Amino acid sequence: MLLLGLFCSCSNRPYHAVPGKELPGWEEGYLDIHSINTGRGECTFYILPDGTTLLVDAGEFHTGGARHPMVEQKPDTLTRPYKVYSAYIQNVSHSGHIDYALLTHYHMDHMGRLEKDYERAEEGYIKTGMMALYDDCPYRVLVDRSYPDYSFDDSKALKHWKRFVDAKKEKDGMRVEKFDLGSDSQFVLVNNPEKYPDFKVMNYHVNGLVWNDGEVLDCWEGKPVRENGASAGFLLSYGKFDWFTGGDAGDNGKVEKPTARAIGRQIEAMKGHHHMSWHTMTPQMLEILRPQVVVNQSFYAHQPWPETMRNVLTVGMPEGQVRDVFLTNLHDSTYVNEEVTLAKVKAYRGHVVIRVLPGGDSFYVYMLDDSNMEFKVKSVYGPYECN
Questions:
Q1: pLDDT at residue 29 tops 80
Q2: This prediction's pTM
Q3: Which domains occur in the chain, in start order?
Protein backbone atom coordinates (compact mmCIF):
# COMPACT_ATOMS: atom_id res chain seq x y z
CA MET A 1 0.00 0.00 0.00
CA LEU A 2 1.35 3.45 -0.92
CA LEU A 3 0.71 6.17 1.64
CA LEU A 4 0.70 9.91 1.02
CA GLY A 5 4.13 11.50 0.70
CA LEU A 6 5.12 13.11 3.98
CA PHE A 7 8.22 14.74 5.35
CA CYS A 8 8.98 17.05 8.24
CA SER A 9 11.58 19.79 8.02
CA CYS A 10 11.77 20.06 11.79
CA SER A 11 13.02 16.48 12.33
CA ASN A 12 16.52 15.15 11.94
CA ARG A 13 15.47 11.54 11.45
CA PRO A 14 17.27 9.90 8.51
CA TYR A 15 14.09 9.55 6.44
CA HIS A 16 12.98 13.16 6.94
CA ALA A 17 14.71 14.70 3.93
CA VAL A 18 14.08 18.27 2.80
CA PRO A 19 14.26 19.38 -0.85
CA GLY A 20 17.23 21.69 -1.39
CA LYS A 21 19.12 20.20 1.55
CA GLU A 22 21.52 17.27 1.83
CA LEU A 23 20.04 13.84 2.41
CA PRO A 24 20.41 13.00 6.11
CA GLY A 25 23.20 10.51 6.65
CA TRP A 26 22.71 6.78 6.94
CA GLU A 27 22.32 5.42 10.47
CA GLU A 28 22.54 1.87 11.76
CA GLY A 29 19.41 -0.16 11.14
CA TYR A 30 18.60 1.60 7.88
CA LEU A 31 19.18 0.11 4.42
CA ASP A 32 20.22 2.47 1.62
CA ILE A 33 20.18 1.68 -2.12
CA HIS A 34 21.80 4.48 -4.17
CA SER A 35 21.42 4.46 -7.95
CA ILE A 36 24.18 6.88 -8.96
CA ASN A 37 23.66 8.74 -12.23
CA THR A 38 26.29 9.89 -14.71
CA GLY A 39 24.49 9.11 -17.96
CA ARG A 40 27.56 7.08 -18.95
CA GLY A 41 27.34 3.89 -16.93
CA GLU A 42 25.35 1.99 -14.35
CA CYS A 43 26.35 2.02 -10.69
CA THR A 44 24.45 1.08 -7.53
CA PHE A 45 25.86 1.50 -4.02
CA TYR A 46 24.32 -0.14 -0.96
CA ILE A 47 24.76 0.59 2.74
CA LEU A 48 23.38 -2.43 4.55
CA PRO A 49 21.73 -2.30 8.00
CA ASP A 50 24.97 -2.79 9.99
CA GLY A 51 27.06 -0.51 7.77
CA THR A 52 28.40 -3.21 5.45
CA THR A 53 28.85 -1.73 1.97
CA LEU A 54 28.17 -3.27 -1.42
CA LEU A 55 28.90 -1.90 -4.89
CA VAL A 56 27.15 -3.36 -7.94
CA ASP A 57 28.75 -2.31 -11.23
CA ALA A 58 30.49 0.96 -12.09
CA GLY A 59 30.37 1.49 -15.83
CA GLU A 60 32.11 4.24 -17.79
CA PHE A 61 32.32 5.22 -21.46
CA HIS A 62 32.58 8.22 -23.81
CA THR A 63 29.98 9.27 -26.35
CA GLY A 64 32.13 8.53 -29.41
CA GLY A 65 30.79 5.83 -31.72
CA ALA A 66 27.38 5.54 -30.06
CA ARG A 67 24.78 3.85 -32.29
CA HIS A 68 21.87 5.62 -30.58
CA PRO A 69 21.28 9.18 -29.34
CA MET A 70 22.53 9.56 -25.78
CA VAL A 71 21.28 11.44 -22.75
CA GLU A 72 23.23 14.34 -21.30
CA GLN A 73 26.32 13.37 -19.30
CA LYS A 74 26.14 14.31 -15.61
CA PRO A 75 27.25 16.52 -14.03
CA ASP A 76 29.23 17.60 -17.11
CA THR A 77 31.37 16.20 -19.92
CA LEU A 78 34.64 16.98 -18.12
CA THR A 79 34.04 14.84 -15.04
CA ARG A 80 34.89 11.16 -15.46
CA PRO A 81 32.02 8.90 -14.39
CA TYR A 82 34.17 6.94 -11.93
CA LYS A 83 35.04 10.22 -10.20
CA VAL A 84 31.33 10.91 -9.75
CA TYR A 85 30.86 7.46 -8.23
CA SER A 86 33.85 8.03 -5.97
CA ALA A 87 32.67 11.43 -4.76
CA TYR A 88 29.13 10.19 -4.20
CA ILE A 89 30.20 7.08 -2.29
CA GLN A 90 32.62 9.03 -0.10
CA ASN A 91 29.85 11.56 0.58
CA VAL A 92 27.43 8.95 1.93
CA SER A 93 29.91 6.44 3.40
CA HIS A 94 33.02 7.24 5.39
CA SER A 95 34.44 3.73 5.81
CA GLY A 96 37.32 4.28 3.34
CA HIS A 97 36.67 0.99 1.55
CA ILE A 98 33.90 -1.11 0.00
CA ASP A 99 33.24 -4.48 1.62
CA TYR A 100 31.85 -6.20 -1.49
CA ALA A 101 31.97 -5.26 -5.16
CA LEU A 102 29.96 -7.23 -7.73
CA LEU A 103 30.45 -6.96 -11.48
CA THR A 104 27.27 -8.41 -12.99
CA HIS A 105 28.70 -8.84 -16.52
CA TYR A 106 31.49 -7.61 -18.79
CA HIS A 107 29.86 -4.79 -20.74
CA MET A 108 31.24 -1.25 -20.84
CA ASP A 109 28.23 0.37 -19.14
CA HIS A 110 28.79 -1.93 -16.15
CA MET A 111 32.57 -2.50 -16.15
CA GLY A 112 34.03 0.40 -18.17
CA ARG A 113 35.26 0.88 -21.74
CA LEU A 114 38.93 0.93 -22.74
CA GLU A 115 39.13 4.53 -23.92
CA LYS A 116 42.46 5.52 -25.47
CA ASP A 117 42.85 8.64 -23.33
CA TYR A 118 42.39 6.82 -20.02
CA GLU A 119 45.41 6.22 -17.80
CA ARG A 120 47.08 2.80 -17.83
CA ALA A 121 48.11 1.19 -14.54
CA GLU A 122 51.64 -0.11 -14.12
CA GLU A 123 50.24 -3.64 -14.25
CA GLY A 124 48.99 -2.94 -17.78
CA TYR A 125 45.24 -2.51 -17.38
CA ILE A 126 43.41 0.67 -18.39
CA LYS A 127 41.86 2.53 -15.49
CA THR A 128 38.20 2.68 -16.40
CA GLY A 129 34.96 2.10 -14.49
CA MET A 130 35.34 -0.49 -11.75
CA MET A 131 39.07 -0.74 -12.45
CA ALA A 132 39.53 3.00 -11.87
CA LEU A 133 37.14 3.35 -8.93
CA TYR A 134 39.20 0.86 -6.92
CA ASP A 135 41.98 3.43 -6.44
CA ASP A 136 39.61 5.75 -4.56
CA CYS A 137 37.35 3.14 -2.94
CA PRO A 138 39.21 -0.20 -2.66
CA TYR A 139 37.19 -3.43 -2.57
CA ARG A 140 37.80 -6.02 0.14
CA VAL A 141 35.92 -8.73 -1.78
CA LEU A 142 35.38 -8.69 -5.54
CA VAL A 143 32.81 -10.99 -7.15
CA ASP A 144 32.17 -11.53 -10.85
CA ARG A 145 30.26 -14.04 -12.91
CA SER A 146 33.13 -16.31 -14.04
CA TYR A 147 36.29 -15.93 -11.91
CA PRO A 148 38.87 -17.46 -12.26
CA ASP A 149 38.07 -18.82 -15.75
CA TYR A 150 38.02 -16.10 -18.41
CA SER A 151 38.93 -18.42 -21.29
CA PHE A 152 35.48 -18.09 -22.89
CA ASP A 153 36.37 -14.64 -24.24
CA ASP A 154 39.68 -13.30 -25.58
CA SER A 155 38.51 -9.70 -25.93
CA LYS A 156 40.78 -6.84 -24.91
CA ALA A 157 38.30 -5.74 -22.26
CA LEU A 158 38.36 -9.06 -20.45
CA LYS A 159 42.16 -9.25 -20.68
CA HIS A 160 42.40 -5.88 -18.96
CA TRP A 161 39.88 -7.02 -16.32
CA LYS A 162 41.97 -10.12 -15.59
CA ARG A 163 45.11 -7.99 -15.21
CA PHE A 164 43.26 -5.79 -12.74
CA VAL A 165 41.91 -8.74 -10.77
CA ASP A 166 45.30 -10.46 -10.58
CA ALA A 167 47.11 -7.25 -9.60
CA LYS A 168 44.80 -6.32 -6.73
CA LYS A 169 44.62 -9.87 -5.47
CA GLU A 170 48.41 -10.26 -5.39
CA LYS A 171 49.44 -6.78 -4.25
CA ASP A 172 46.54 -5.67 -2.04
CA GLY A 173 45.15 -8.96 -0.82
CA MET A 174 41.73 -8.34 -2.35
CA ARG A 175 39.66 -11.51 -2.15
CA VAL A 176 38.13 -12.58 -5.46
CA GLU A 177 35.20 -14.97 -5.88
CA LYS A 178 32.90 -16.31 -8.55
CA PHE A 179 29.23 -15.43 -8.09
CA ASP A 180 27.82 -18.43 -6.22
CA LEU A 181 24.48 -19.41 -7.73
CA GLY A 182 21.94 -20.44 -5.10
CA SER A 183 23.95 -19.07 -2.19
CA ASP A 184 22.55 -16.84 0.53
CA SER A 185 25.91 -16.55 2.32
CA GLN A 186 28.18 -14.87 -0.25
CA PHE A 187 27.11 -11.32 0.61
CA VAL A 188 26.73 -11.32 4.39
CA LEU A 189 26.80 -8.57 6.99
CA VAL A 190 30.34 -8.11 8.33
CA ASN A 191 29.84 -5.77 11.29
CA ASN A 192 26.87 -6.84 13.42
CA PRO A 193 25.12 -9.69 11.59
CA GLU A 194 23.57 -11.06 14.78
CA LYS A 195 21.48 -7.90 15.11
CA TYR A 196 19.79 -8.41 11.73
CA PRO A 197 18.78 -12.07 11.34
CA ASP A 198 16.07 -11.10 8.83
CA PHE A 199 18.59 -9.68 6.34
CA LYS A 200 19.63 -11.88 3.41
CA VAL A 201 21.01 -11.67 -0.13
CA MET A 202 19.97 -14.65 -2.27
CA ASN A 203 21.87 -15.29 -5.53
CA TYR A 204 19.22 -16.19 -8.12
CA HIS A 205 20.82 -16.19 -11.56
CA VAL A 206 24.15 -16.10 -13.40
CA ASN A 207 25.59 -17.35 -16.72
CA GLY A 208 22.10 -18.08 -18.05
CA LEU A 209 21.28 -20.34 -15.09
CA VAL A 210 18.50 -19.77 -12.54
CA TRP A 211 18.28 -21.20 -9.05
CA ASN A 212 14.81 -22.53 -8.29
CA ASP A 213 14.64 -23.98 -4.78
CA GLY A 214 17.53 -26.38 -5.31
CA GLU A 215 16.98 -26.97 -9.00
CA VAL A 216 19.22 -25.25 -11.57
CA LEU A 217 17.39 -24.16 -14.72
CA ASP A 218 19.35 -23.67 -17.95
CA CYS A 219 17.50 -20.77 -19.57
CA TRP A 220 19.53 -21.00 -22.79
CA GLU A 221 19.13 -24.79 -23.08
CA GLY A 222 22.84 -25.43 -23.61
CA LYS A 223 23.24 -22.81 -26.33
CA PRO A 224 25.88 -20.03 -26.07
CA VAL A 225 24.73 -17.38 -23.62
CA ARG A 226 24.76 -13.74 -24.70
CA GLU A 227 26.66 -11.49 -22.32
CA ASN A 228 23.54 -9.69 -21.11
CA GLY A 229 21.87 -13.01 -20.42
CA ALA A 230 24.89 -14.14 -18.38
CA SER A 231 24.41 -11.32 -15.85
CA ALA A 232 24.43 -12.08 -12.15
CA GLY A 233 21.31 -11.19 -10.18
CA PHE A 234 20.16 -11.38 -6.57
CA LEU A 235 17.20 -10.74 -4.27
CA LEU A 236 18.01 -8.64 -1.20
CA SER A 237 15.58 -9.07 1.69
CA TYR A 238 15.33 -7.07 4.92
CA GLY A 239 12.29 -7.81 7.03
CA LYS A 240 9.29 -7.41 4.72
CA PHE A 241 11.31 -5.46 2.15
CA ASP A 242 12.56 -7.20 -1.01
CA TRP A 243 14.73 -5.67 -3.77
CA PHE A 244 15.60 -7.51 -6.97
CA THR A 245 18.46 -6.58 -9.29
CA GLY A 246 19.54 -8.63 -12.29
CA GLY A 247 22.08 -6.66 -14.31
CA ASP A 248 20.98 -6.89 -17.96
CA ALA A 249 19.72 -10.47 -17.78
CA GLY A 250 16.17 -9.40 -18.60
CA ASP A 251 17.22 -9.07 -22.24
CA ASN A 252 14.62 -10.94 -24.34
CA GLY A 253 12.97 -12.42 -21.26
CA LYS A 254 14.98 -15.65 -21.21
CA VAL A 255 16.15 -15.17 -17.63
CA GLU A 256 13.70 -12.71 -16.07
CA LYS A 257 10.61 -14.91 -16.39
CA PRO A 258 12.04 -18.09 -14.82
CA THR A 259 13.70 -15.97 -12.11
CA ALA A 260 10.38 -14.34 -11.28
CA ARG A 261 8.77 -17.77 -11.05
CA ALA A 262 11.60 -18.93 -8.78
CA ILE A 263 11.13 -15.93 -6.46
CA GLY A 264 7.40 -16.56 -6.64
CA ARG A 265 6.08 -13.64 -4.60
CA GLN A 266 5.44 -9.93 -4.63
CA ILE A 267 8.46 -7.72 -3.96
CA GLU A 268 8.72 -4.09 -2.95
CA ALA A 269 11.18 -2.69 -5.49
CA MET A 270 13.55 -3.63 -8.33
CA LYS A 271 16.06 -2.28 -10.81
CA GLY A 272 14.80 -2.07 -14.37
CA HIS A 273 16.11 -4.99 -16.44
CA HIS A 274 18.51 -4.02 -19.23
CA HIS A 275 17.72 -0.33 -18.71
CA MET A 276 14.10 -1.05 -19.70
CA SER A 277 15.02 -1.43 -23.37
CA TRP A 278 12.75 -3.31 -25.78
CA HIS A 279 11.74 -6.91 -24.97
CA THR A 280 12.39 -6.51 -21.21
CA MET A 281 10.24 -6.20 -18.09
CA THR A 282 7.79 -8.72 -19.52
CA PRO A 283 4.16 -8.83 -18.39
CA GLN A 284 4.68 -12.39 -17.13
CA MET A 285 7.41 -11.21 -14.78
CA LEU A 286 5.50 -8.14 -13.62
CA GLU A 287 2.39 -10.20 -12.84
CA ILE A 288 4.45 -12.31 -10.41
CA LEU A 289 6.76 -9.77 -8.76
CA ARG A 290 4.35 -6.78 -8.77
CA PRO A 291 6.92 -4.30 -7.38
CA GLN A 292 5.65 -1.05 -5.92
CA VAL A 293 8.71 0.81 -7.21
CA VAL A 294 10.96 0.36 -10.25
CA VAL A 295 14.25 2.28 -10.57
CA ASN A 296 15.81 2.51 -14.04
CA GLN A 297 19.32 3.59 -15.01
CA SER A 298 19.56 4.44 -18.71
CA PHE A 299 21.77 6.22 -21.25
CA TYR A 300 20.15 6.05 -24.70
CA ALA A 301 17.04 7.49 -26.34
CA HIS A 302 15.35 4.05 -26.45
CA GLN A 303 15.71 3.58 -22.70
CA PRO A 304 13.08 3.22 -21.43
CA TRP A 305 11.32 1.92 -24.53
CA PRO A 306 7.73 3.34 -24.61
CA GLU A 307 6.03 -0.07 -24.84
CA THR A 308 8.18 -1.36 -21.99
CA MET A 309 7.31 1.70 -19.96
CA ARG A 310 3.58 1.20 -20.49
CA ASN A 311 3.87 -2.39 -19.25
CA VAL A 312 5.90 -1.37 -16.21
CA LEU A 313 3.43 1.34 -15.27
CA THR A 314 0.34 -0.86 -15.36
CA VAL A 315 0.87 -4.64 -15.49
CA GLY A 316 0.19 -6.26 -12.14
CA MET A 317 -1.32 -3.08 -10.70
CA PRO A 318 -4.91 -2.70 -9.49
CA GLU A 319 -7.19 -1.28 -12.14
CA GLY A 320 -6.78 2.48 -12.49
CA GLN A 321 -3.47 2.60 -10.60
CA VAL A 322 0.08 3.01 -11.93
CA ARG A 323 3.37 1.81 -10.55
CA ASP A 324 5.89 4.35 -9.25
CA VAL A 325 8.75 4.50 -11.75
CA PHE A 326 11.92 6.52 -11.14
CA LEU A 327 14.31 7.19 -14.04
CA THR A 328 17.86 8.45 -13.61
CA ASN A 329 17.75 9.71 -17.22
CA LEU A 330 15.31 10.45 -20.00
CA HIS A 331 16.22 11.56 -23.51
CA ASP A 332 14.19 14.52 -24.76
CA SER A 333 13.12 12.68 -27.91
CA THR A 334 11.82 9.50 -26.27
CA TYR A 335 8.34 10.65 -25.28
CA VAL A 336 7.65 13.45 -27.75
CA ASN A 337 4.46 11.65 -28.76
CA GLU A 338 3.89 9.94 -25.43
CA GLU A 339 2.83 12.82 -23.18
CA VAL A 340 0.24 10.74 -21.37
CA THR A 341 2.76 8.01 -20.55
CA LEU A 342 5.42 10.48 -19.43
CA ALA A 343 2.96 12.22 -17.12
CA LYS A 344 2.58 8.96 -15.20
CA VAL A 345 6.31 8.63 -14.43
CA LYS A 346 6.89 9.46 -10.79
CA ALA A 347 10.20 11.31 -11.25
CA TYR A 348 13.15 11.42 -13.60
CA ARG A 349 16.65 12.87 -14.09
CA GLY A 350 18.71 12.50 -10.94
CA HIS A 351 20.29 10.08 -8.52
CA VAL A 352 17.66 7.77 -7.00
CA VAL A 353 17.87 6.62 -3.37
CA ILE A 354 15.73 4.02 -1.64
CA ARG A 355 15.97 4.19 2.15
CA VAL A 356 14.40 1.32 4.09
CA LEU A 357 13.54 2.05 7.70
CA PRO A 358 14.82 -0.18 10.54
CA GLY A 359 13.08 -3.54 10.55
CA GLY A 360 12.14 -3.36 6.88
CA ASP A 361 8.45 -2.48 7.26
CA SER A 362 8.51 0.70 5.16
CA PHE A 363 10.72 2.76 2.87
CA TYR A 364 11.12 6.14 1.16
CA VAL A 365 12.43 7.15 -2.26
CA TYR A 366 14.46 10.31 -2.88
CA MET A 367 15.55 12.02 -6.09
CA LEU A 368 18.87 13.85 -5.72
CA ASP A 369 20.24 16.61 -7.93
CA ASP A 370 22.77 15.28 -10.47
CA SER A 371 23.74 18.65 -11.98
CA ASN A 372 26.65 19.13 -9.55
CA MET A 373 28.58 17.24 -6.88
CA GLU A 374 26.56 18.50 -3.92
CA PHE A 375 23.89 15.75 -4.19
CA LYS A 376 21.06 17.81 -2.72
CA VAL A 377 17.53 16.40 -2.39
CA LYS A 378 15.15 17.30 -5.23
CA SER A 379 12.02 15.47 -4.10
CA VAL A 380 10.73 12.97 -1.53
CA TYR A 381 8.29 10.07 -1.98
CA GLY A 382 6.70 7.84 0.62
CA PRO A 383 6.43 6.23 3.00
CA TYR A 384 5.72 3.00 1.15
CA GLU A 385 4.40 0.18 3.31
CA CYS A 386 6.04 -3.21 2.68
CA ASN A 387 3.88 -6.25 1.98
A1: yes
A2: 0.96
A3: 31-385 (3.60.15.10)
